[in-house]
């Protein structure tokens, strides 16, 4: 028994030494060409730039430090990894985003090739493609510097809280850091959970404020449509009424009831889109009813009057130039078409803002869902080019708050730099197509560049 106890006692220093080696290894750069994604992710959680030891010739330590300092000073969630040419590419971006767990823009220099992916809440997919295309064919430092300069200009969100003040390569670990490993592991989960809860609470407050601002405008729209129904000189039982007229009238009444119910149930700004869609459906039904009663051909389905959807369906397109913008064709009602033809101003829908009454397209991004319900996502961007609302909708800040669907909030509530873990849309990190692909064509979903 004494011999057994003596053997176990002697093994204790060896066990401690083994644990120390494991801890040091976790913080040391990996020397193999096929560094694990988890190792890269660990490094990126500490600093925005990671250079694989096997790719050290591509980017010097000084150059990596300069990039990392620039990204940190800008307070933006940009992650850059420089890897050797032979690094495995299958699902690289998706796996790296999952392992890092931070919402942001991820760029990878792989040998002499380059590509990037991003959460749509920080940078739209098209913007990522354009950035990647603009730096193709450059040397490593020039390419990464140009990409960083251009990306930081438009990138939404902020730097993650996990970035510390250590060196960019993650070396030089002190004994104090090793002693604190256990405490960090214990506290990290609680801290990340608290951060996520705080971000969600902030996002919910922003949603409520945006919805309250929209509610005033939508209630005006619902009231206006209800007054149209009250003024309507039609009764389903009148002698001239037929089944088609009664069906039009019933659809208009149902649309009014639906709009009121949708607004009562609305909890987020994007819920307003269903309300304005219902109102537009109702007004088109009234236009059909009027045509039937007057013996005219039924109207074609057109978008509402651009200047004020309460004017009803448009009857033609007219050229209009917003202040400081370029001319474009917009759908207009008959009255506004006459005003424009006579050189007069159209009857523009104005809403309350912090700076007084303004046209809805100059009133801020909160009106995106309201306008999107009337005009639809496909038509709206072209109509709003050159206006404040159009500019907001194409900017990363709008995407971060309202998503990429013209008014859709990011349902996860994660902004750039947030610790979302594996809660993200893998489609953002899959096949982009176009300029972002390596190999010149659309690749398999999830592949780095698509040509492998």
Describe this structure in words.
The protein is α/β, with parallel strands linked by helices and 452 residues long. The protein is 50% helix and 9% strand. It is built from 14 helices and 8 strands. The strands form 3 sheets. A 4-stranded mixed sheet has the order 1-2-3-4, with helices on both faces. A two-stranded antiparallel sheet has the order 5-6. A hairpin with a 2-residue loop joins strand 7 and strand 8. Residues 1-12, 23-33, 165-175, 391-412 and 431-452 have low confidence and may be disordered.
Task: Write the topology of this structure.
Blueprint: H1 2-27, H2 37-46, E1 49-51, H3 61-74, E2 78-83, H4 92-100, E3 105-110, E4 113-118, H5 125-134, H6 140-154, H7 175-179, H8 181-231, H9 243-265, H10 272-294, E5 316-320, E6 328-332, H11 334-341, E7 350-353, E8 356-359, H12 368-384, H13 388-393, H14 396-402
Parallel strand pairs: 1-2, 2-3
Antiparallel strand pairs: 3-4, 5-6, 7-8
Helix pairs in contact: 2-4, 3-6, 8-9, 8-10, 9-10, 10-12
């Amino acid at each position: 028994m004494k011999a057994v106890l003596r053997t176990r006692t002697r093994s204790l220093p060896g066990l401690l030494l083994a644990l120390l080696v494991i801890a040091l290894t976790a913080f040391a750069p990996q020397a193999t060409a096929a560094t694990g994604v988890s190792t890269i992710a660990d490094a990126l959680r500490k600093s925005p730039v990671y250079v694989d030891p096997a790719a050290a010739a591509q980017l010097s330590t000084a150059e990596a430090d300069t990039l990392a300092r620039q990204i940190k000073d800008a307070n933006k969630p940009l992650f850059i990894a420089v890897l050797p040419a032979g690094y495995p590419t299958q699902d690289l971006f998706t796996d790296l985003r999952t392992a890092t767990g931070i919402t942001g823009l991820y760029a990878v220099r792989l040998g002499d090739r380059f590509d990037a992916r991003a959460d749509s809440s920080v940078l739209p997919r098209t913007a990522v493609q354009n950035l990647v295309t603009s730096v193709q064919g450059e040397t490593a430092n020039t390419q990464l510097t140009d990409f960083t300069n251009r990306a930081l200009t438009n990138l939404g969100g902020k730097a993650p809280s996990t970035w510390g003040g250590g060196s960019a390569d993650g070396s030089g670990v002190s004994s104090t850091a090793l002693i604190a490993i256990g405490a960090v592991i214990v506290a990290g989960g609680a801290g990340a959970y608290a951060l996520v809860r705080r971000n969600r609470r902030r996002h919910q407050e922003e949603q409520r404020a945006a919805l309250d601002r929209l509610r005033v405008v939508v209630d005006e729209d619902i009231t206006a449509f209800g007054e149209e129904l009250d003024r309507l000189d039609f009764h389903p039982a009148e002698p001239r009424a037929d089944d088609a007229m009664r069906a039009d009238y019933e659809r208009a009444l149902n649309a009014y009831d639906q709009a009121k119910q949708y607004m009562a149930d609305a909890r987020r700004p994007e819920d307003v889109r269903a309300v304005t869609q219902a109102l537009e459906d109702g007004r088109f039904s009234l236009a059909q009813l009027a045509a039937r009663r007057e013996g005219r051909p039924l109207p074609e389905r057109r978008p509402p009057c651009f200047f004020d959807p309460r004017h009803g369906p448009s009857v033609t397109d007219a050229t209009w130039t917003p202040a400081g913008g370029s001319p474009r064709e917009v759908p207009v009602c008959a009255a506004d078409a006459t005003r424009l033809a006579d050189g007069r101003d159209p009857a523009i829908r104005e809403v309350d803002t912090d700076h007084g009454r303004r046209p809805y397209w100059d009133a801020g991004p909160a009106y995106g869902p309201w306008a999107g319900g009337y005009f639809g996502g496909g038509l709206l961007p072209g109509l709003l080019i050159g206006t404040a609302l159009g500019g907001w909708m194409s900017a990363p800040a709008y995407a971060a708050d309202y998503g990429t669907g013209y008014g859709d909030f990011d349902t996860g509530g994660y902004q750039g730099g947030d610790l979302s873990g594996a809660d993200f849309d893998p489609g953002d990190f899959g096949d982009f197509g176009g300029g972002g692909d390596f190999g010149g064509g659309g690749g398999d979903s999830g592949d780095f560049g698509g040509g492998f």
